[in-house]
Amino acid sequence: MKDRVEYKRSNEIPGLVLSEARFSDFRFERHYHLDYHVALVTEGVQRQGFHGETLLLTPGTIQLMPPGEVHDGNSAGDESYTLKTFRVSPQLLSGITEEITGQDRFPALGGTVLQDARLAGHLSRLHDALRAAQEAEPMEVQSEWLMLLDRLFSQTRMVKPHFIKGTLTSVQWQRVRDYCDVHLAEKITLEELAALCALERFHFLKLFKQTVGMTPHAWLVRLRLERACSLLSHPDACLTQVAQEVGFYDQSHFNRAFRQAFGVSPSKY
What is the rounded CA–CA span in Å between residue 204 and residue 216? Predict the structure, then answer.
């Protein structure tokens, strides 16, 4: 199989570059990066030389590689391997760390490898969603990005997450509901809802879930589907128009979400 590699800059998350590669013959010579890498091998095995040791990166392995660490990489055998990487700029990492920990800097760290197949699977799906950004909900990918990095840094004990307790105030909760009601047909971002409450995105995420019992994205999707049910009760309802009026710009996405929620397609409701 011919080697291939693709890079994509994320529109939803400035400072993030995504790469996906399939390698068999290509070898990474000894090198280092100026940005922070979160890497996943999703198929096959990569052999890596790092700090005088040989590491085998397999599916389910997550590697965090800080700037300046020298390493290499190649296929562990005759088979090819697939590598997905999140390349995080220092500025983006600093901002994320401040949101998650309440501190304005990220500590100096060595390379870390974490064996967690479930978390690796979540990161792989987020990588796919970010690369297919035109099909993804901005709030969904932004929320997943923050929550997964919170889990990743917590499990590796790299930083101490900022403990957030409490709930949204009644005024904040009302502002969020009113805004979503008015702008339901539009793309609603995490930043917009957090700003209504005068909160940072991560702080808002935590308080929202502690208030409602759902993530903002899950709650918003349900609101859209419930509103769709109301519109579908009209005998002359047009499925495409209903989908657009409640914020689904892709008909197949609307159909999948509706079937998952109610067990039938919108046309059968």
Answer: 9
